[in-house]
């Protein structure tokens, strides 16, 4: 798997190196706009990566699957896909870049409920995107905004400042870029530029001069960030991405904003945040990306439900949304739309990510709340050490970003902040009482019981009910209800010995939060659990018939979904005890590995030796645990039917 | 020969006409009233209690539901056992009366199992089967609620060891008596069907020697069905495979399951002298408890990983699958002698694997934080009831 981040000016490609760490190749496009002309930019990047990753032969290496980054605005997805496919890549996913940044910073995790601002500033643009991350591993792009304000503006401002100090014939912007990247975190840099007379001309740039020169664009950047931070919903964390954000002072400038007081600003290898986040996507498993304002982006302070559920007349996310989010123009395809206090129908948003992007939901109300004190990670302590702000760090191997656990403790909440809160959809038929606060449950477990799931958890003191949400993941979600939401009473839980959910055999994401009465508890998040899918089921049933020439046995295999049946041995065993392996009986027939079509029985027939007393016919994979390795579950329809005589 | 009935309290048998009546002790229509007096039989059997100051008992036609007191001329419906003088359940003799004895070694979890079983039958299983379970006397209602259900479900505490019957006067064991009611479809529509169930919870020590078995477990011979609870953790071949962290029973004073089964079998065979060729025809549910400790060893296809199908009838196929799976486990646990003994001495027996709590208790003998998740606990009782014809079953076997 390779991850590709194409920008206007730079492209980055990452793949997991032999040591397990991401190896990143960066490339500056020459005369090509990576976003506007990916068909030309991508081959150039791949070629550069082939040189950069020596020993792997081609750029894509033996693994040609790719995950692509897409600007938050969602533009150019088709062109990007076509370019990648033309370059011989197999596009597995297209992930919005802000989501990749969130993954890079480990901001998406089970049970996490937070709102983050992704500040992505590269060579040409400043992209500000607000993401709502909910405990069920859903990332919702609430709004996105683009300013044409990037490293080029920094360079232009510095070039103006350097007027008269550069040798004649020197491109001032190029020289400014060189100096700006060269100064890094130092107080001063001396660059030797070619002079017209063939000699060298030294130019000195101090930190003070640089700060003074770039003050106007920096002020514009900070103003844009401050505007986003002041908007609703309240943001818990600011995540920095893009080469320019690696500039010393960038992070401290944002942290100094009044609107950013008590907020966490994270800045760790920002120039690699997108591409490394894309690479992390493959390890992440279940992730859902939605677009538009969510059903609940934060929690009111005095209860689980907002007191005033009056819907806002404008269901649109924000007037500051300069760029349309992906799929805004398409109609919804929600298979089970729920009634919502909406003035506009929900919209289906075709996602930039193959994992599925759901319908945008109208914003319903606003309410005030303190900033949640949940598990908000702090910025990584390490400062950027890249060679330059938006310069491509050409590094054969970049160490993995630090995990959030390494971060210092989160700052205290700021009670004066306000946030937008939208009531989550009521569980089916369960009007929940006001004044209940949600707290995570402990010891959340789920036991598979065939097609059912027995969900267990430890109830917090005082909780009499719990809200349980589940979502079926993968293709199995297409059959039946894809998700659910209910309130489980503690009394019922205790009487029934847990909560039984009929969710099928697919992967399921569960979140459970107990509802506790009383004020003063301000706790964010829900306990979440991912239950992996069960492998396809192949059932077999033996039968014995008496014929003129003796007894004949048949074994019929049936699968609910198409799968590959491994080599099997049918073993005949005598005695009252069912054989546990092929050595405990005689192999009477072998079934060759073959494709088993869904609901199409495969029957094998063979003569059965005459026996006295009880005997068994049991199937075993020829190669040990081949059934498990093949990802299928081979079992009898009823175990006692294996006893054939 | 008149049909014999068995008292659900003392497990003694008698004919219907032998049933005695007790005066209600209230003012009769004739204006007379019988004096309350201490029932010496009750005192002898159950121990002296003030609640044994009752109206006089008298002999009448026990086949009738009512009788007229010869003293006060008042009509009474109180029918009592001619042996122990306990008040018999309403409609006793006209509804199915099934006595189910529970046998198990020390610390095999009999009390927990019985409590959870009755709770399940009252709640989840009762809902699936459309069945109701009600206490038939005040003592049962009070004792089940306060001594069993509340302690386990409300206080989340396990039980101390059950007191052996030998410490009680006259080796008395007080059973819990319930009425199991089910709506059955008949040719005339849905009709309620009632079965009286009597549960004895005995101490494991009562089965530690043949003398104590005969002395304290006399009710076994009168039982219509037996639930034999065996703890696989007391089987040397199984202990090593238990989930790490599982509390292990000690070895002092404990007996192996095959020894317990041998004693019970001897007791049941004793009154059958002269018919040695016949097997014991009392259905025996051989229940292996604490199966949660072995869940990690089970195949994905094992029926012991699934709950019993929640239907309104007993699923014979599922039960047979569990039977064969447990038999297979017995082989792994060096339990072949148990299987051989059952096969050679019992006509009807069925293996079950249950877990009353679903999780290991905490070291301080409390329920796990996630609560009680009983697992297949009702299967043995439902099988016995299906053998009696008290619940419908689907499938053969």
UniProtKB/TrEMBL annotation, chain A:
Pfam families, A to Z: HSP70
Metal-binding keyword on record: no
SUPFAM superfamilies in the record: Actin-like ATPase domain
Biased composition (Pro residues): 338-349, 386-399
Gene3D superfamilies the UniProt entry points to: 3.30.420.40, Actin, Chain A, domain 4
Stretches the record annotates as Disordered: 290-434
Record keywords: ATP-binding, Chaperone, Nucleotide-binding
Keyword Lipid metabolism on entry: no
PANTHER family in the cross-refs: CELL SHAPE-DETERMINING PROTEIN MREB (PTHR42749:SF1)
The protein's name: Hsp70 protein
Source species: Kitasatospora kazusensis
Lineage: Bacteria, Bacillati, Actinomycetota, Actinomycetes, Kitasatosporales
From TrEMBL, chain B:
InterPro entries: DO-GTPase2 (IPR045528), P-loop_NTPase (IPR027417)
Residues in Double-GTPase domain copies: 98-293
Lineage top rank: taxon: Bacteria
Pfam family name, one: DO-GTPase2
Protein name in the entry: Double-GTPase 2 domain-containing protein
Protein species of origin: Kitasatospora kazusensis
Upper classification of the organism: Bacteria, Bacillati, Actinomycetota, Actinomycetes, Kitasatosporales
